[in-house]
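Chain A, query sequence.
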Amino acid sequence: MLGKWAKVILQTVMLSGLCASVQANTTVAENAPAEPAPLAQSDNAPPPKRVALLLPLRSSVFGAAADAVRTGFLTASERTRDNLVITIIETGDSVQDVLSAYNDAAAKYDIIVGPLARSAVTALAQSNNIVKPTIALAQPDLPDGAEQRLPRQLLLVGLSIEDEARQVAAWAERVKTPGKIFAVATNVAWQRRAAKAFTQQARQIGLTVDNLELSVPNNALSASGLAQLSQRIQAERPALLFVALDAAQTIQLRSAIGNEIPLYGTSQLNPLTLATATAAINAAAKAAATNTAPPANDSRLPELDGVHLVDMPWQLQADHPAVTAYPRSVANTDGKPNADLERLYALGIDAFRVASEIAAQRSGFDIDGVTGQINANMGAGATYFQRKETQAVYQDGIAVPVANQR
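Chain A, predicted structure.
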């Protein structure tokens, strides 16, 4: 993808039987054919569904992301009694390697989960080789309108910065603040995609949007660009800004334009894991109760207080029923928590739940997922996948769900 998770990918560069739960088979060795494991079953048992989890675990670019998805997928499988058998198929970086592994898996398995890389999903979506239900873990890079012609057995469940931007546009419309909107981005690919998706959706529902792109010399937003933006804000008084930026860039932007104008953005405004945010809040509360200074390593971002965003329940809602059902165990190789890897771990959890629904031959289904409210259909009628994430706002340096979800 990894769409919105391209940043972390590039930085990491981007059991069986009648009453048992899912079993994860030994990963398929390099260059070895992926063979489904033999299964024991009673005469009256329905045959188990064979699921291939196709991930670039041998990739130096996507390996950390693939491992997070695999961990989430297998963690979810251990908490069900579905009649599934999982085989993990490892690939490398090349699109041809992934497509070859996919074609081999499609001949032997009932359901394919993967690929994970955006380029591989794009190539697969444009091929004529999808003959089994396939749960792609990224969004393809296709021309506008091409999504309408996707293969019927291809379900796109990948995390999407564009979908988040469209949800924010709908949110902005419901706020009913009069005036135009500025959509602000840099020339980074995911930011341009987010700004484009927001603008298209906003204009479609009757909002007026101007797109503004800031340059990024020396890894910081251009001071002259920020000054010009501030002047335009003072002159034109937009209703709000959609910031297709990350948290650090948004802090810099806010220091230049002030706190008066509302800011809305995507999950990339939330770089903290839920565990890190919770620990920071608890440490600050303890310091306040004992009349001592907050910890020196306070990870909260008070500069973003009042900023609105969307993110998944896994990142925001510790008391969410699905969130409480799974452990948190994803970190960088250096042991530090990583919000983007947590999101990919959550994607693995929900990907397993989607696979379970498809294996049960439910053509249409809803899932209260750790990545959001999922509504999907594969089978009768049109194939589609929709995910609604949680609306949040920064308070005391932490992103928290808003009281009234719109």
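The chain is about 35% helix and 15% strand. Residues 3-160+340-376 form a domain with the Rossmann fold fold (CATH 3.40.50.2300).
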